[in-house]
Amino acid sequence: MRTSCLLIIIFYSKALLAQDVHYSLFDKTKSLLNPSLLAYQKNQYELQLQRRSQWSSVTTPFNTFSLSFNAKDVYENISAGTTILNDVAGDSDFSTDGISFSLANRFTTDENFLSASLQVGLYQRSVNYDDLIFLENEILKNSDFLFFDVGVGFSNYKILRPKSAILLGVSLFHLNKPQQALTTNNTVTLNPKYVLHSTYYNELNARLDISPAVYFSSQGKEREIVVGSEIAYKLNNTTSLISGIYSRISDALFFTLGLQKSDLEAVISYDINTSSLSNASNYMGGVEFSISYAWDIVKQSKALKSQEEFS
């Protein structure tokens, strides 16, 4: 019964083929949220890993993994990043593997930091038919295919007061509508995805920071809205405790907990399912974690070195 239902979903639902992977910690992997955010990272370099596992209480878990390397200001105000993605869904091992490359250019005014970006990617999708049960004969065109993907992103980081700022962003993915056919039906394409997001950063006092955020995405008939806030409590000059509570409207409530120590950050989240599948899942959703490490390499000009030698 489980494999039959999954088969129906995969081969008869264009909506599933048109949806992207998603994280509850949506702001950690910049390339999946908005590649223009590369221009705002604090350090020169960042290595970030993220993994999510969900629906283990219902069926074979859906697992998502990504690894990103981002470099700020590699040439003047241009930043670059690359992300490796692996996603495996259910009994059919319906998988998406690929790599994306992003470039972001930052423009600075008196009160605003603007950024525009371009992202390109190459992905492979595949399915394993061995453990699937067909309700009727199917003409299978292939078990895997490659597709090229194009996206753009725009954002504005505005300092409101010395202790507060707001980030506004919009990103568009799959602008080329790549084909997603696993059968002889060549009309199945990956729907363009539109993302709007905003975060308000506010330092309440010397130890407490709060960052309420809102996320909205639209892809085909699918909509996703997330609202919530992160709270960071400074334990000392180098260490902060991170926590948060968010709601994915009509789908899940999730909590985050993490630690930031110097340039290393580790955060974990857990979803409590509140959708119509809550009875089947026993309200269990997904476990997710993100680990990132950021660093700087100080570059000195020849003139500065000469001054130091003669000082």
Write the layout of secondary structure elements.
Blueprint lengths: L1 H11 L1 H4 L12 H4 L11 E10 L7 E14 L2 E12 L4 E15 L3 E15 L17 E18 L2 E10 L19 E11 L4 E12 L2 E13 L4 E10 L3 E10 L2 E10 L4 H4 L2 E12 L6 H9 L1
Antiparallel strand pairs: 1-2, 1-14, 2-3, 3-4, 4-5, 5-6, 6-7, 7-8, 8-9, 9-10, 10-11, 11-12, 12-13, 13-14
Protein model, in words:
- The longest helix has 11 residues, at 2-12.
- The chain contains five helices and 14 strands.
- Helix content is 10%, strand content 55%.
- The chain has 311 residues and is mainly beta.
What descriptors fit this protein?
311 residues; mainly beta; 5 helices; disordered N terminus
Task: Return residue spans where pLDDT drops below 50 for at least 5 consecutive residues.
Answer: 1-18, 300-311
Strand content: over 45%
Q: Helix tally?
A: 5
Identify the overall geometry. Answer: globular
C-alpha Rg (nearest Å): 21 Å
Q: Describe the sheet with the most strands.
A: 14 strands, antiparallel, barrel
User: In total, how many beta strands?
Assistant: 14
User: Which strand order do you get reading across the main beta sheet?
Assistant: 1-2-3-4-5-6-7-8-9-10-11-12-13-14
Sum this structure up briefly.
This protein has 311 residues and is mainly β.
